[in-house]
Design goal:
By secondary structure, this protein is of the alpha/beta class. The chain is built from 5 helices and 5 strands; from the N terminus they run βαβαβαβαβα. It is globular. The two termini are 16 Å apart.
């Protein structure tokens, strides 16, 4: 059950939406994971683009929050891969970055991201964005 005051458009067989948070920075993962869980989401985390792809395929999350700047497979490439795979192309990906807003936003949209958020972002603002995205996607 999501935090009181939020709309509850959730219609999945899961009791709560599953968020996959992909970020190479442990402190960022921990902070956002703890808040999103407090807010009522189920949260899985991945520390790299490759791990994010594997977990997305395995867990079929309801939304993916994807850091763009990571070593190895970055968030741009990971999003591109996820949008090319039939098992994951339907999952909304929100690009999440501390980059200058213009160029990465264009790149993120070009590879298939449905949203774009700039760090730093307060955890409750991230949760509100997820609620709005899921509500829109679920017909609420």
């Amino acid at each position: 059950m999501l935090r009181a005051g939020w709309p509850t458009p959730w219609t999945s067989e899961r009791p709560t939406p599953l968020v996959l948070l992909v970020d190479d920075q442990a402190d960022q993962r921990t902070m956002y994971q703890e808040y999103l869980e407090y807010a009522g989401f189920a949260v899985a985390v991945a520390a790299s683009g490759a791990e994010g792809i594997a977990k997305a395929i395995e867990l079929q999350p309801d939304v993916i929050i994807m850091d763009l700047s990571m070593p190895g497979i970055d968030g741009f490439e990971a999003t591109k891969v996820l949008k090319a795979i039939s098992l994951t192309r339907h999952i909304p990906v929100v690009a999440f970055t501390a980059h200058h807003p213009q160029l990465p936003k264009e790149w993120a949209v070009a590879v298939g991201a449905e949203g774009y958020l700039l760090k730093p972002l307060l955890p409750h603002d991230l949760a509100d964005h997820i609620v709005a995205l899921l509500g829109t996607r679920l017909g609420s």
